[in-house]
């Protein structure tokens, strides 16, 4: 199984008082054979959020370990154009272009889904694992 992971899922894994912490741990245990991918933005975004919401020490630890644990995908013009297209079809206020990029990557690479707790993905046809 090939999956993309979203920042919210990584934060839930690491931040013990996150409302989705136990769900994230449980989901990950069931995916031992899965290949987990990230975008070029996922690791820095997660480190930044950890620095704000947990600690700089936690953010540094994550940054040191993350690049060895996940396969980082490269972006190309086709993926960027697809992300833009998804973003431009959205009418709700507060839509994240990064979430649209994640959706584009799942579609482009034909991944089985995304590890996330964000309901946006199901609204654009992405299976949330």
Q: Could you tell me how far the N terminus lies from the C terminus, measured between alpha carbons in angstroms?
A: 11 Å
Q: Characterize the biggest β-sheet.
A: 4 strands, parallel
Shape: globular
Pattern of helices and strands = EHHEHHEHHEH
Roughly how much helix do the residues carry, as a percent range?
55-70%
Q: If strands are numbered along the chain, what order do they take across the biggest sheet?
A: 3-2-1-4
Tell me the name of the CATH homologous superfamily of the domain at 2-75 and 111-123.
Answer: 5'-nuclease
Alpha-beta classification:
alpha/beta
The overall average pLDDT, rounded, is 96
Count helical runs. 7
Written overview of the protein:
The protein has 129 residues and is of the alpha/beta class. The chain has a domain at 2-75 and 111-123: 5'-nuclease (Rossmann fold, 3-Layer(aba) Sandwich). It is built from seven helices and four strands, in the order βααβααβααβα. The protein has helices spanning 7-14, 21-29, 42-53, 56-69, 77-88, 97-109, 120-123; strands at residues 2-5, 35-38, 71-72, 113-115. It has a four-stranded parallel sheet with strand order 3-2-1-4, sandwiched between helices. Helix 1 packs across helix 2 (21-29), helix 1 crosses helix 3 and helix 5 crosses helix 6. The longest helix has 14 residues, at 56-69. The radius of gyration is 14 Å and the shape is globular. The protein starts with a strand and ends in a 6-residue tail after the last helix. The mean pLDDT is 96.
């Amino acid at each position: 199984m090939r999956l993309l992971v979203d920042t919210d899922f990584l934060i839930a894994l690491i931040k013990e008082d996150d409302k989705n912490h136990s769900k994230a741990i449980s989901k990950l245990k069931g995916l031992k054979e899965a290949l987990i991918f990230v975008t070029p933005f996922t690791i820095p975004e997660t480190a930044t959020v950890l620095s704000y919401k947990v600690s700089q020490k936690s953010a540094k630890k994550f940054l040191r370990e993350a690049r060895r644990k996940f396969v980082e995908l490269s972006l190309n013009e086709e993926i960027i154009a697809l992300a833009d297209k998804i973003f431009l079809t959205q009418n709700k206020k507060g839509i994240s272009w990064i979430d649209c990029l994640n959706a584009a990557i799942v579609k482009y690479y034909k991944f089985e889904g995304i590890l996330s707790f964000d309901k946006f993905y199901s609204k654009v046809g992405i299976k949330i694992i």
